[in-house]
Write a structure and sequence with these properties.
Elements lengths: L1 E3 H11 L7 E4 L2 E4 L4 E4 L5 E3 L8 E6 L4 E3 L6 E3 L2 E8 L8 E6 L2 E6 L7 H8 L3 E11 L2 E10 L6 E10 L2 E10 L3 H13 L2 E2 L22 H6 L2 H6 L2 H21 L6 E4 L3 E5 L3 H22 L10 E6 L2 H8 L10 E2 L2 E7 L10 H16 L1 H6 L2 H12 L2 E3 L2 E3 L4 H12 L6 H6 L9 H16 L11 H17 L17 H13 L4 H13 L3 H15 L1
Parallel strand pairs: 18-19, 19-21
Antiparallel strand pairs: 1-17, 2-3, 3-4, 4-16, 5-6, 6-9, 7-8, 9-15, 10-11, 12-13, 13-14, 14-15, 17-18, 20-21, 22-23
Helix pairs in contact: 7-9, 9-11, 11-14, 12-14, 14-18, 15-17
Length: about 550
């Protein structure tokens, strides 16, 4: 089903009768009544959607034409960008940063606003710059801070022209990103827009991101807290679990639709929601690819559990500049959006790869999310050989008719063939049992062989009885082994290190931290799975022949 923004207006009005219109249109102006400001945007600049989880950036616009940087090592296309960023006073005193351990990786957990002001925001989200201008100005009675920021360590040299306006309880930074080679031509256009900035009567709060539609619950509600407690979740009836997941999916989809600019197209079906600014032909190719991959996932992994797998949400930007503008958020320089329980996959039309551009990243993300929805304990405990092989197989897959076709990449073939010539290949038993922590320079061989073996299994493992109908059986044994091992882990936690998880992501962080406290756990899990499979020497001999077929 194809929907455009205009076709949704009536439905959104009915859903949101109790909400304040966040943004309205005046000729040439971006008017944000919720936060109380307006600004005249340059010419035909395009409105870029805001990530539904964004907390600081409230508006983005991209120039309708590209400019070429010629001062770097090679020519770079760049489309000037405008952003409005809000820093409420109310969040400045909150905890700035807390370091935590998630599976051996140090992660930074921020409060609502880890930034003191715009300068601090830049220091934490960008690099390789200096302030080339710091001044003050005045428009009528409105004071502002006049800043220029120079970047000279990127592939292209560019500058930011930013004016920071102060209201009674917040700073509003309006930022333009412009190539240095075209600064004299474009800076006056930016300053003309900046001079049009005005505060207006505020009709809502300063909270950034998209507001929820009237009558639709937020994503981070009690249902999602329940989804974060696996024990309670699994104790529920399958029909109730499906209903809660479907309701969470519907709320997430609605939030994406709420902040959709007029000229973005929406294609919605049971498998996916594709939000596209690319041309219709490429958009149709993306939908076809997603549906093809989902059918394959259902056929391959559908019997692992009775859990409902939520639809895939894909945003298709029309080019890299738009992708970059959308993906640059307040949480970092480039990041991919993720709403509480549904990951959004963001790609762009890559003309260098034709209709396959970006499809591998879609398939990889779909595979990871599918296993997570089927049972996150499987996703978190997938043995390295199968995990690596599956990810690489999906990264190099392509739709062919209604089927998904797998083909190893050139790098995989090269690594394996070189190792074969040197007689340095791993055996199938080694691949499926080894500890990968000390592979060092042999990881490429392990990765390549794993890809070929997993692909062989996924293609039906012809001529190898032990690997026939292997996938569902193997993953169920992974789940059983993980549950057995976790059942022996102590439940006690040091004071201050434990709280009941509110979401699946919090539970995952806590679970990974808990796993790292048990040395040799992954090795034990792998051996337990093989014991459950019950392969004897004859089986292993057939599997070795199957691996050789995959390599040949």
């Amino acid at each position: 089903m194809i929907i455009t923004r205009k076709a949704m207006i009536l439905a959104l009005v009915l859903l949101a009768t109790s909400t304040v219109a966040t943004v309205t249109a005046q000729v040439g102006y971006h008017v944000d009544k919720q936060r109380g400001f307006k600004i005249k945007t340059p010419g035909d600049w395009e409105c870029i959607p805001i990530d539904i989880n964004e907390k600081w950036i409230v508006a983005k616009f991209l120039c309708d034409r590209s400019f070429v940087a010629r001062s770097g090592d090679f020519p770079v296309d760049h489309r000037p960008m405008m952003r409005v960023i809000v820093f409420p006073d109310s969040t400045r005193d909150e905890k700035k940063v807390e370091l935590g351990d998630a599976g051996g990786v140090i992660v930074a957990l921020f409060g609502k606003n880890p930034y003191k002001d715009y300068a601090d925001f830049l220091r934490q989200t960008r690099s390789g710059f200096y302030f080339s201008k710091e001044d003050r100005g005045k428009i009528g009675k409105l004071d502002y801070q006049d800043l220029e920021v120079t970047f000279d360590k990127d592939a292209a040299k560019y500058r930011l022209v930013t004016w920071v306006f102060r209201t009674q309880d917040a700073d509003f930074a309006v930022e333009f990103e412009i190539l240095d080679d075209h600064f004299d031509k474009l800076a006056p256009i930016a300053r003309k827009a900046l001079k049009s900035f005005r505060f207006i009567t505020r009709e809502g709060g300063l909270a950034s991101g998209t507001t929820d539609s009237g009558g639709i619950k937020k994503l981070d509600d009690e249902d999602l807290a329940l989804m974060g407690d696996r024990k309670k979740w699994k104790a529920m009836h399958a029909a109730d679990r499906r209903r809660i997941r479907k309701e969470a999916e519907d709320r997430a989809v609605q939030r994406y639709l709420d902040q959709l600019p007029d000229d973005w197209e929406v294609l919605d079906n049971d498998n996916c929601l594709v939000i596209s600014h690319a041309d219709p032909r490429y958009t149709a190719e993306v939908v076809k690819a997603v549906n093809c991959c989902r059918r394959w996932l259902d056929e391959t992994f559908g019997e692992i559990s009775d859990e409902y797998v939520m639809k895939t949400i894909v945003r298709v930007c029309k080019d890299y500049a738009e992708f970059r503008a959308y993906s640059m958020g307040g949480g970092g320089s480039i990041r991919i959006s993720s709403s509480a329980e549904i990951d959004e996959i963001v790609i762009y039309k890559d003309t260098g790869e034709g209709t396959r551009g970006g499809f591998g990243s879609i398939f990889q993300s779909m595979g990871a999310r599918y296993l997570h929805d089927k049972d996150r304990l499987i996703a978190w405990n997938l043995p390295n050989w199968f995990d690596s092989g599956l990810r690489n197989a999906l990264a190099n897959a392509r739709p062919k008719g209604s089927k998904l076709e797998f083909a190893p990449d050139v790098y995989t073939i090269r690594e394996v063939k070189i190792a074969e010539a040197k007689k340095e290949l791993f055996s199938a038993r080694e691949l499926m049992t080894m500890d990968t922590g000390n592979l060092n320079d042999r990881y490429g061989v392990f990765f390549g062989e794993s890809t070929l073996l997993v692909r062989y299994i996924l293609d039906g493992a012809r001529g190898c009885r032990p690997l026939k109908d292997f996938t569902t059986r193997y993953l169920r044994y992974v789940l059983e082994a993980a549950e057995e091992i976790d059942g022996r882990l102590p439940e006690s936690r040091p004071a201050g290190e434990w709280k009941e998880p509110d979401t699946e992501k919090e539970e995952e962080e806590q679970y990974r931290k808990r796993r790292t406290a048990t040395a040799g756990r992954d090795d034990e899990l792998g051996k337990m799975v093989l014991e459950k499979l019950g392969f004897d020497d004859k089986d292993w001999a057939q599997i070795e022949k199957g691996l050789q077929r995959a390599i040949d």
